[in-house]
Amino acid sequence: MRCRVAIVLPFLALAACGQPSEDAAAPEPDGATAAQPEPSEAAVPAETAAAAAPAPTAFAQCKTCHQVVPGKHGIGPSLAGVYGTKAGEIPGYAFSAAMKASGLTWDDATLDRYLESPMKTVPGTKMVYPGVKDPAKRAEIIAYMKTL
């Protein structure tokens, strides 16, 4: 019997997670309920807005050189707002002549090709990285970049 209780108790505790307490459900003394303010996107600073979408594990290698805060560049340019732009046009970063002249627009297909082999896609790029060979990991990175 003790064995069954030891197994069932953790599950019962988990079942209560996320449930409002009885105190939280009680009405205000005058019968009115407390109004909860709606969070405002405008009130969220840029640093926390970029961090709102969780980065996939595959993005960890990107963070070595790239930031996700608009205008904050590292070794590479900030990736905030890159999706849908022309290559080499993010303000405040000194892109290579090859990147500026590439004529690329950062969409799904172009990012997939570039992330697979940056130096082959844009010969002369500053991004001397061998690339992400796993298509699933590239897809995760691209999906995340769309949220930035």
Automatic annotation (TrEMBL):
It holds the Pfam family Cytochrom_C. This is Cytochrome c2 iso-2. Residues 50-148 form the Cytochrome c domain. The keyword Electron transport applies. Residues 1-15 form the signal peptide. Keywords: Electron transport, Heme, Iron, Metal-binding, Signal, Transport. PANTHER family: CYTOCHROME C (PTHR11961). SUPFAM superfamilies: Cytochrome c. InterPro entries: Cyt_c-like_dom (IPR009056), Cyt_c-like_dom_sf (IPR036909), Cyt_c_1A/1B (IPR002327). GO terms for molecular function: electron transfer activity; heme binding; metal ion binding. Residues 22-48 are annotated as: Disordered. PROSITE patterns: CYTC (PS51007), PROKAR_LIPOPROTEIN (PS51257). It comes from Tsuneonella dongtanensis.
